[in-house]
Structures are given as C-alpha cells and as structure tokens.
Amino acid sequence: MGFFLETLIGGLMAGMLYSLVALGFVLIFKASGVFNFAQGAMVLFAALAMARFAEWIPAWTGLDNLLLANLIAFVLAGAVMFIVAWLVEYLVLRHLVNQEGATLLMATLGITYFLDGLGQTIFGSDIYKIDIGMPKEPLMLFDTVFEGGLLVSQEDLIAAGISAALVALLTLFFQKTSTGRALRAVADDHQAAQSIGIPLNRIWVIVWCVAGVVALVAGMIWGSKLGVQFSLSDVALRALPVVILGGLTSVPGAILGGLIIGVGEKLSEVFLGPYVGGGIEIWFAYVLALVVLLYRPQGLFGEKIIDRV
User: Fold this and answer.
1) Which region among 109-123, 216-230, 292-306 has the lowest average model confidence (pLDDT)?
2) pTM, to two decimals
C-alpha cells in the first residue's frame, strides 16, 4: 500500500507540472482560437533568461544573497517575457486579426523558431543551472502508519505547490475579473467582441503576457529539476496529451488532464511496465489522448462546437 501511495503522489506532483505547461496552450487558444506551438520555445526562452540573469546579477552587483538574486532575476525575466509578448502582438498578431486559424498557427511556428534562435544568440547554448533553493533531499512521511513510510521528493512537493497556487490564481482571474470575461468573449468570437468595444489588440497582449509568466514559472521549475538546455522546449510535447485530454478551452480541464496523465504515466510504468518491457511512460499519455479523441474530440472538459447552417 505504501509503495502504491508513493507512486500515486509522484504522479500527482508530475501532473501538476504538466498542467502548468498545458495552461500556456489553453490561455492562448482561449484568446486567439489558435494552438500556440511557440509555448515550448517560450518556456525555454524564459528559463534561459532566468538562469542567465541569476548568474549575471551577482557578477554585476557583488550580491551574495541567493534568494534576493533569484528574485531580481525572476522579475527581470518576467519583464523580458512582457516585452516578448508585446512584440509578438505588435509585429505579428495585430496584422493577422480575423485571419484563418491555419494562418495564426503558422505564425506561432515562425515565432517558435525565432525565439529558439534569439535565445541562443542572447543567452548562449550551454547547459545552465537554476538554483532557487528547493531542497533535493527526499522527505519521509507517515513512517508510523506504513511500514518504511512514504518517500516523497521535497523538490517535487514544493514545485507542485507553486504550480497549484498559480493555477488557482489563473482560474480566479478568468472567472472573476472583467478582463478574464473579456478574454472568454474574444475566444468565442473576435468580431462580436470587437463590436461591443473589447479592444482585441490589448486583450492579446494581456493573454500573451500571462502565458509568458506561466512559461517563466514552468521554465524555472523544470530548469531547476532538469537544468536549462535546449531540449527543455520538448517539455511542451509532454503537455500536448494533457491539452487534448482536458480540452483546449478549459482551464480546469488542463489541471485535471495533467493529474490524470501524471498518475497514469507513473502507475502504468510501475505496474504494467514489467509486462510490456518498460518504456510505457513515454507513450502512455499519447495513446490515452488518441482514445479520447476517437470518442470525444473536444476533450473531456472542452466545449462542444456546434455549427448551425
């Protein structure tokens, strides 16, 4: 029982990190109706900015306080992502208002390669470290309840807590604020939203800024766990099944989809892996997403699209 609970908790914590990356996809889709292939590049770009600023600030200022240096680096990296969001809207999106979804999709592909190249030019292409002070040692819990206790990663536990807090704030933002309601209106119909006075350009800047902050937090956490390297952009590919499972238009769906995928990956690898030769954790999420697409193309929590003629 203890081993099962360890695996379950590990899956839930991994699922929260997947949900954090998936949220970036959902945010952009809700505001523009396009699947943002640049989300992985944004995670990488934000993580590179955070890692490099954390290196440069002590060298520039002589500051030896790790927490303060990381805080300043986070603020500067957030400012960089705001600038990136504004430039994306000003140089690309405002010229593509009311265009076909395929056009916007190709634009995000172009943004992906541009950010990959720009990040390498500005910040370098080495492997960098983000040290935000999260403890690496595992934590022993309930040793009086289960034989041997439950071994839980403190780093994963803190990362899951940060992800959960950000997810909760974004959910409140979309549901309770006028800007969040405007974002939903823009997602439903660009032209109708413009006709009632909602400024489409400003809404797109806001949502790309929010997606940039989400990418920064995701990049900071994943960079702390895996190191900041260009393969970090592949983390977005691990979030694709989460988006498909939860639904492209649902913030709660991204959360629950991440938890389902995270738990499913861990449990399948541990309990089914020995019978299929291992490696099931790599493809389990994609097979599950495919099954969901066959029976519910809009995802478990996505809005069903009905075209009336």
Assistant:
1) 292-306
2) 0.84
